[in-house]
Automatic annotation (TrEMBL):
The encoding gene: ubiB
Organism ancestry: Bacteria, Pseudomonadati, Pseudomonadota, Gammaproteobacteria, Oceanospirillales
Pathway field: Cofactor biosynthesis; ubiquinone biosynthesis [regulation]
CDD domains: UbiB (cd13972)
Cell location: Cell membrane
Transmembrane stretches, start-end: 500-516, 522-544
Taxonomic source organism: Marinomonas aquimarina
Coiled-coil ranges from the UniProt annotation: 472-499
Stated name of the protein: Probable protein kinase UbiB
């Protein structure tokens, strides 16, 4: 708790040090805050107005990797940010202050168990790039191959865990504060983010992710993934092939190479949907610092992806649901969208579908038949959030990475080709994927997938058939025995009911003899007693003797 309080104090100090309070519109505050807190914050505000983007960038850098990641995501949303802020945040992609090269060498030697000079023919101690979690050095292997060496920042895990504790405190507070907070499921979102960012600290996992992504796009002309050198990769060190390409955000350089920007943007969308729906494994950190372009064929430019630390995946149910939703959106079938939300449990079962449909239509209809540059996705997201509040729609933590990646794709597409119609580009792919899920090819693939298991169990089939037939025969014999027992019981009950009048008469005769023996004459009985006896005998007849 003390460490969390210290970290919180540092965050507040950093906000004040870099005058991030200048981003707060004092004139919009309630009067009691405007003339108290607002008056204090306004001191020196005019002087602090200069270089606001630089102050924000420096504050995020000083607060550590979680805040740098936040800045990286914001840097892709130039539609939501002024140019001066977006330009400064773009520097967070690969120009975070580096740690000394000598420290990097010590980490490499500790991980690989050998001196740097014994591993590499050449090693540049000045980093090529420095990011929030790690930094990269260029090197040459003894075999002469040009590589890059990625090294995790020292003591970074301690800072990350402190920040995550603060995020959990904030998440629990938001969850308990209101129904809206519970609906957003902030604790689950933080848990998902914790799992993701801690995975970034393990370069062995990143190497494995890179290898899988590379296999998925083997011989593809859409995406190239660098080769991993497994003998030199550990938890805190990873060595991979050095690539040559143009950073995707360097628009002037791409234009100088006559790259077809429309095709480049469309191929980016195709790569994303291929990863999500065909491979169920997608790069979930697609900010411009991780993407390069091979311009050797400018009419069909090829992407190059690095930094596979954060990867996402969807199960079959999520993919099917997502595809059906997107296709319904593309067809403007808002009734289907509403029904799918209810069916999936994202909104309560009692939600009025017609009202939900109308609300979705009002938010999404303006998006269609417009190029990307004319669509305000900020307003669309705001409208969807308001719809969610109205119908108690919950945030789905398993889709947080996908939503984040979609935002990155949209921001990248806006920079590359503002006239790109994202919906028109994606719709044919989704329709083709859905047809594959229900067509003959899907059946063939499923048979092919199950064939080895069927072949393995084939020798056991005769024994299974014999065992099943024996079990059925025994069960049939038991059922016959039970039927015969029930028939016998019914016969005994019918025989008992036929003999009941004689048994009753015998009982009455015994009673009469007993009464006579005790000198009690029936004539001496009161009328009420006689009536009671008659009712008693009549009840016995109705319940026992009458069939």
């Amino acid at each position: 708790m003390w460490k969390s309080a210290t970290r919180f104090l540092r965050i507040v100090t950093t906000v004040l040090r870099y005058r991030l309070d200048t981003f707060i519109p004092i004139h919009l505050l309630p009067w009691y805050l405007k003339y108290t807190v607002g008056a204090l914050l306004s001191i020196g505000r005019k002087k602090a107005e200069r270089n606001r983007g630089e102050r924000l960038r420096l504050a995020l850098e000083s607060l550590g990797p979680i805040f740098v990641k936040f800045g990286q995501i914001l840097s892709t949303r130039r539609d939501l940010l002024p140019d001066d802020i977006a330009d400064q945040l773009a520097r967070l992609q690969d120009r975070v202050p580096a740690f000394p090269g000598d420290v990097a060498c010590k980490i490499i030697e500790k991980e690989l168990g050998a001196n740097v000079e014994d591993i590499f023919q050449e090693f540049d101690r000045t980093p090529l790039a420095s990011a929030s979690i790690a930094q990269v050095h260029t090197a040459t292997l003894k075999s002469g191959e040009s590589v890059v060496v990625k090294v995790i920042r020292p003591n970074i895990e301690k800072t990350i865990r402190q920040d995550i504790k603060l995020l959990y405190m904030l998440a629990h507070f938001v969850a308990k504060a209101s129904a809206d907070g519970r609906r957003l499921r902030p604790v689950e979102v933080v848990q998902d983010y914790e799992y993701t960012i801690l995975d970034e600290l393990d370069l062995a996992k990143e190497a494995a992710n890179t290898g899988l992504l590379q296999r998925n796009f083997t011989d593809s002309d859409l995406l190239y993934v660098p080769q991993i050198y497994w003998d030199y990769s550990r938890r805190n060190v990873m060595v991979m092939e050095r690539i040559s390409g143009i950073p995707v955000a360097d628009i002037p350089a791409l234009r100088r190479q006559n790259v077809n920007m429309k095709v480049l943007a469309e191929r980016g969308v195709e790569i994303f949907f291929t990863q999500v729906f065909s491979h169920s494994f997608f790069h979930a950190d697609m900010h411009p610092g991780n993407i390069f372009v091979d311009p050797s064929n400018p009419e069909r430019p090829k992407y190059i992806a690095i930094d596979c630390a954060i990867m996402g995946s969807l199960d079959e149910a999520d993919k099917n649901y997502l595809a059906r939703n997107l296709l319904a959106f593309f067809k403007r079938d808002y009734r289907m969208v509403a029904e799918l939300h209810v069916e999936s449990g994202w909104v309560p079962k009692g939600t009025p579908v017609h009202a939900f449909e109308s609300a979705i239509r009002s938010v999404c209809e303006p998006m269609f038949a417009k190029p990307l540059k004319e669509i305000s996705f900020g307003q669309v997201l705001l409208g969807l959030f308001q719809t969610a509040r109205r119908f108690n729609m919950e945030v789905q933590p398993q889709l947080v990475l996908l939503e984040k990646t979609l935002l990155n794709i949209e921001g990248l597409g806006r920079q590359l080709y503002p006239d790109l119609d994202l919906w028109v580009t994606a719709k044919p792919f989704l329709e083709r994927w859905m047809n594959e899920q229900v067509g003959p090819r899907r059946l063939f693939d499923e048979v092919k997938k199950q064939a080895p298991d069927w072949a393995a169990h084939l020798p056991q089939i005769p024994n299974l058939v014999f065992s099943t037939m024996t079990h059925l025969s025994q069960q049939e014999a038991r059922m016959r025995e039970q039927t015969e027992a029930m028939d016998h019981l019914r016969k005994e009950m019918r025989r008992s009911r036929r003999n009941m009048p004689f048994k009753l008469l015998g009982l009455l005769a015994m009673g009469a003899a007993w009464i006579t023996t005790d000198n009690i004459a029936l004539a001496h009985l009161a009328e009420a007693d006689i009536l009671s006896l008659a009712l008693f005998l009549g009840g016995i007849y109705l319940l026992v003797l009458k069939p």
